Amino acid sequence: MRRGRIIIMFSLLIISVLLPTVDGTQLSKQLKISFPDDVEQTRFNLPVFVAGRWQCINITLNETVDELTVSLYKGEISPPSYVRDETNYYSWRYEASSGWSALHNYGADSYLNKSLCSQHDGVYCFCVGVNQNVIPTGKEWINWTLQITSRGEEVFSQKIVIEKPETGIEPKTGTLVFQVEPFTIANLSSSFGIHNIGNTPVKIKQVSYNKLIDRIATSNQGAILPVDGASTHNVTIVTKKWPPGRIIIEGTTTASPLYWFPYGGITYTSSVQIPVPQIYIYVGHSDYELEEIKKGDITFQYKRNIKMVYGETKNVTSYICGNGNISFSLSSTNLTLLGVWYDGKKIGDPTSFIVRSTNTSEHPLVAKIAAQKPNITGYIHYRLNFNGQTNSYTTTVQVEETFSEKKQGGSNVATYLVFAGIILVTSYIIYTRIKYNK
Q1: Are 265 and 347 in contact (CB under 8 A)?
Q2: Lowest mean pLDDT across 44-48, 79-83, 95-99, 412-416
Q3: Cβ neighbour number for residue 344 with a 10 Å cutoff
Q4: What does DSSP assign to residue 36?
Q5: Which of 16-30, 38-52, 66-80, 400-414 has the lowest mean pLDDT?
Q6: Tens digit of pLDDT for each residue in 266-281?
Q7: Angle at 152 between CA 149 and CA 153, to 5 degrees
Q8: Whose CA is closest to 211, among 254, 253, 252, 250?
């Protein structure tokens, strides 16, 4: 009988050694610190807790418990009770019978957001916060400790970094460039992005512009950007019948931080305003240079570069718009100027003439030129004088030989080679006959 008791006791001892001990470390399964429905942040491979904002401390356990306590304290050792304050110690508890409560009394519900706390299937979410004053002046972060206990026994302990809240956004796209033909109505569209570069989720408020407010629509206003998140905003512009020119539009948007504490004692971080990508609208003909004279009163559009072939004749058109009388001089180099027409009327002396321009339509200036020299660079020279201001512009014309001439030239070379071969062969035959006849 005694021998049987010894065997039983020995067996129980072996079982107690072999069975895993259900201590705090094995009870804890996972820890995640983040903003509600957001991603975790880390610094030095440690979890980040942002001061002055509501954060979710999510604890996943291997089993359900009826009491769980979360404590946050400065450094590695919990401070004595008589020196605890908002700068060094916080603690909250969950009890199955009574729900969520704070174990410190710093006012304003002691930094506990019960509406966002939850418990379900072994996952315990503590939505809590700490005062921004835990970050000393001049510092961006500080080391703290997160401790989780249940019924007085430690479940988990983790070093964390508490950061100063930072609200920051930046545009992800450069200038939005559009081109529209003069005096036409069109719908222009493009998009730009905004990137959250702070450590706090933000809400993008209305995008505003300094001009054409009633003609610009921007989508996705009010977008919420998580930490390191980005948004895309489509921009649509309905044009008017604009005369030639450049339209530059500046815009701004504002990002407001989310999950900040809405009561006294916590410093509110103001919204951040940034410029959105500039909008540049080129009102002019595609592939034309646009020059604005006298602050845009007169515009002149011309081709910077064109190509011609030897023997070709071409009409080269430029455009004038704006109110006023303009003195013109038009000439050419290495090209033959056959005639000049303005608004369909031929100009008697292209080297010196005056035209009347209006801003209600474009006025074409046509120069008819002939390329009478092959393989040269020619030039069309424009000289404009308006209200005492003189401007000069040049169209460069690259003249190439014609395809037929290239082909003909190649054929001539081949012909010469054939004749040369025939002569060589004939000479060789004559030479050998003379040699053997001797």
Answers
A1: no
A2: 412-416
A3: 8
A4: T
A5: 16-30
A6: 555 578 889 999 999 9
A7: 60
A8: 250
134-153 b/e (C-beta count within 10 Å ≥ 16 → b) = bbeeeeebbebbbbbbbeee
Spatial separation of the C-alpha atoms in residues 368 and 233, rounded to whole Å:
47
Output the pTM of the full model: 0.74
Tokens, residue 316: 């080269």
DSSP sequence for 118-180: EEETTEEEEEE---GGGS-TT-SEEEEEEEEEETTEEEEEEEEEEE-----EEE-S--EEEEE
Report the b/e string of 53-81 with b at 16+ CB within 10 A. Answer: bbbbbbbebeeebeebbbbbbbeeebeee
3-state secondary structure string across 40-93: ECEECCEEEEECCECEEEEEEECCCCCEEEEEEEECCCCCCHHHCCCCCEEEEE
Distance CA 412, CA 129 (A): 91
Three-state secondary-structure class, residue 305: strand
User: Looking at the DSSP assignment, which residues form a beta bridge with residue 306?
Assistant: 397
Q: How many residues does the chain have?
A: 438
**56-92, pLDDT tens digit by residue?**
999 999 888 999 999 999 999 999 999 999 999 999 9
Whose tokens are 């040369």? That residue is 420
